[in-house]
Amino acid sequence: xxxxxxxxxxxxxxxxxxxxxxxxxxxxxxxxxxxxxxxxxxxxxxxxxxxxxxxxxxxxxxxxxxxxxxxxxxxxxxxxxxxxxxxxxxxxxxxxxxxxxxxxxxxxxxxxxxxxxxxxxxxxxxxxxxxxxxxxxxxxxxxxxxxxxxxxxxxxxxxxxxxxxxxxxxxxxxxxxxxxxxxxxxxxxxxxxxxxxxxxxxxxxxxxxxxxxxxxxxxxxxxxxxxxxxxxxxxx
Length: 236
Prior knowledge:
InterPro entries: Extensin-like_C
Largest sheet: 6 strands, mixed
Protein name: Extensin-like C-terminal domain-containing protein
Organism: Sphingomicrobium lutaoense
Shape: globular
Helix content: 25-40%
Domain Extensin-like C-terminal: 57-236
Strand content: 15-25%
Radius of gyration: 18 Å
């Protein structure tokens, strides 16, 4: 498939024009390096997921983007399925981040959130309300537990800080947009929430919302589940 894409592009544009187009639009190609300054493209989520295998590179991308994030100390527990080595304390220093309070996620989640804030969240806030989001309300990231808190079965992506649960948004004006209150209906708050949910689907491996089930009635679940094939995602 990649070879066919390359050959088709070269035949259509010619080699020099193809290389110029590739340099101008790296988001269109799966083989170009990820930069958090680039627009979101069809392969951005795959590139973000691949950062799970290269924590130093992931941290360097956040540093270049001047997000204000800092590496967090590793977290190791007696339960081998829980903990992380690539934690990032989001917005812990002066930078471009929104306020999250104290939140540590895995590095790929932090990188995906940075793109989501810039490419989806803030444009949607300006579109629907004419103002910026200034803070994110959330239910945290790391939690050493199995899916849905069960006693048996697979561990949640929260067990390795590869997921974050977003509960709502705070605006410049002081207004709040909690998901549990504003998801129902078709008002501008509901339209805003659906737009920011849909934009997250281009960046995260899994995006779950109140449309998925009752357990997600009050939040969005975003995760960068490791070990899934390129191109795989779930958006509900």
